[in-house]
User: What shape does this take?
Amino acid sequence: MKDTKQHQEQSVSPCAACKLLRRRCAQDCVFAPYFPADQPNKFATVHKVFGASNVNKMLQEIPEHTRSDAVSSLVYEANARIRDPVYGCVGAISSLQQQIEVLQTQLAMAQATAVQMHIRHFSSSLFTNSPEHLNASTSSSEAANSRQGNSVFSMDMLNDQPNADAFWP
Assistant: This one.
């Protein structure tokens, strides 16, 4: 009973593809599950770029469980081709890759600035612990040892930080 009702509904309201192609929507219409009647622009765009017969062939050649993803890809590519007839979605991908490169450059610059600020902070704290500020009872060898341990050029400077690896990509 349900099957008959669905068939009657389909014959009363054909899918967007059958409506655009002005044909009767059969019960086993390959377009009906993916191009509902309430979304006519979806099929119109795909039809304009790829053609109904090509879309029909593509959908019939792939397994049913992947058809929904294929239709989504076709719709995306068709919309991209309408916006940019030459490059289509490749143009959108290229634009996004350029944005990624710019953002990565900005991130590297921000990380370098953070390292420079860290070094400045570290070197300024060195001057507050310089031998001039140490007690008079501290020997010169102890002062030399304290300066060597807090050297600005020490490679171990970032190892003490919990997120030291976050500074480097």
The mean pLDDT is 79. The radius of gyration is 34 Å. The helical segments are 2-12, 16-21, 40-50, 52-61, 64-83, 89-128, 140-149.
